[in-house]
Amino acid sequence: MRAVRFRTFGDPSVLHVEDVAPPRAPTGDQVLVRVDASSVNGTDLGLRRGDLKIATLGRMPFVPGFDVAGEVLRCGPAVTAFTPGDQVMALLDHGGGGQAEQVLIRQHRAALAPASSSAVEAAALPLAGLTALQALHGKAGLHARRGARVLVNGASGGIGSYGVQLAKLAGAHVTAVASAGRLAFAAELGADALVDYREHEIADLGERWDIVFDAPGLLSFAAVRPVLDDGGVLVSTRPIASDALRGLVPPPLRHDSRRFTAVMTRPRSQDLAHLAALVDSGRLRVAVDRSFPLARASEAHRHAEGGVRGKVVIAVSG
Ligand SMILES: NC(=O)c1ccc[n+]([C@@H]2O[C@H](COP(=O)([O-])OP(=O)(O)OC[C@H]3O[C@@H](n4cnc5c(N)ncnc54)[C@H](OP(=O)(O)O)[C@@H]3O)[C@@H](O)[C@H]2O)c1
In which domain, by residue range, is 113 found? Predict the structure, then answer.
């Protein structure tokens, strides 16, 4: 089968489409999936650049791709959730491997894809959608904060574009932070207020928020604390050492009702199914900035690094 691989770290030219051995037959709770599409995430870009060398140790040449959508071809004997022919989407483990024509997936990492979506759209949901959902509801307790004021940093990107929409669905007032050229996109997603990060520091806006969701993981707690309301929370995709330690201190020992927390995205199939239901009911939009065929995977990476509106996806089959 064909797969995208890199054997050295560097710019997108290190990616090559190669013939590799297909996966063995599924065992236990594994399903064998024909991959129709796989999206490009910040994690793929970082791994390729060599920012996270430890994650590729013993796994070179590395096949990127953590999100897939496609058809179940075969099921292991312990699979209960799927049968061959099902259209699924899934979040793969740290080994990646999604940018290939077939992949083995444990069933708890997958859910039925939205019936109303193409494979390209379904592949744009798992990692970014789960991260936004688990950050806002799981970590920041959005569901328990009626009429919350939420600031989404990186609102035009993969995670942020879901963050804006999920916060609006929860009844929040949403401030979207992105570069000027992508603010109209954040407004289309429902943002109530728009901030160009090149023009304004959020500390200078004279406002406060209940939740600051830092999708690109660029903000420190020290910088955000003054703009958090009492009981407010900064939830980040990237734990920053001292901020992460602060999050470990139990509330009674903290002299501050404001807190920092970081999300570590989990492959929960019930969360994936929830996202699929939101898409099928027309309440959540999957924003695909652009898709590329597998043979042009390096172009897809280059495009993703240039700034996007939503997600960049690789169409694997066809
Ligand atoms: N913790 C976890 O489990 C987990 C899971 C998934 C991903 N992640 C991490 O999450 C990060 C974001 O992923 P993504 O896929 O959403 O990335 P993305 O699609 O590239 O989006 C990045 C966003 O950040 C914005 N941005 C860039 N510089 C900014 C700045 N100085 N201030 C404010 N916004 C800025 C961009 O806006 P413009 O394009 O308008 O400049 C864009 O909206 C990645 O670093 C990834 O590794 C962590």
Answer: 2-125+286-315
